Amino acid sequence: MATLGELERAMMDLLWEAPEALTANELRERLAQNDAGRPDAKGLAVTTVLTVLSRLEKKALVARERDIRPHRYRAVTTRAEHTAELMHEVLGSANDREAVLARFVGSVSATEAQTLRRLLDGA
Fold first, then answer.
1. Segment 6-29, tens digit of pLDDT
2. How many CA atoms lie within 13 A of 53 on its CB side?
3. Residue 65 near residue 73, CB atoms below 8 Å
4. Is residue 43, in this structure, part of any structural domain at all?
5. Spatial CB neighbours of 52, under 8 Å, sequence gap ≥ 6
6. Which residues of 80-110 are buried (b: 16+ CB within 10 A; e: fewer)?
């Protein structure tokens, strides 16, 4: 799974939060609202947004609804599914999975450990 750049991450965050698919212009407006303190936020061209959406579509993170104009974009998976996939990919690339899991489990909070226990007991 490919990593996300700063603008890709910002767009995915907006798509994950949106209850419906968004157009490139809607994404551009929301990016500008979220980054109002950044000097380049309002100057983001819609073509740039479309280019990033195209990249996200190639990475299979975004689906484009082509039946209406302007096209609308939505996240293919939830944020939780995406994060779990990233974690699984990283774990799968480890030479010593047990050591990685031990390190991870050793770094979680007590509440998170209880959640892990509960999830494992239910599995």
1. 999 999 999 999 999 999 999 999
2. 24
3. yes
4. yes
5. 7, 8, 11
6. eebeeeeeeeeeeeeeeeeeeeeeeeeeeee
Establish if 1 belongs to a structural domain: no
pLDDT score, position 36: 54
Could you list the beta-strand ranges (E) of the chain: 62-65, 72-75
Which domain covers residue 113, as residue numbers? 79-122
Q: Using CA atoms, how far apart are residues 24 and 26, in angstroms rounded to an integer?
A: 5
Record the tokens describing residue 84, joined without a space. 């779990």
The token pair at 105 is: 């489990």
- 37, 53, 75 - which closes a domain: 75
Report which residue type is found at 38: R
| 64 and 86 together in one domain | no
CATH of the domain at 30: 1.10.10.10
pLDDT category of residue 40 using cuts at 50, 70 and 90? low
Nearest to 28 by CA among 75, 73, 63: 73
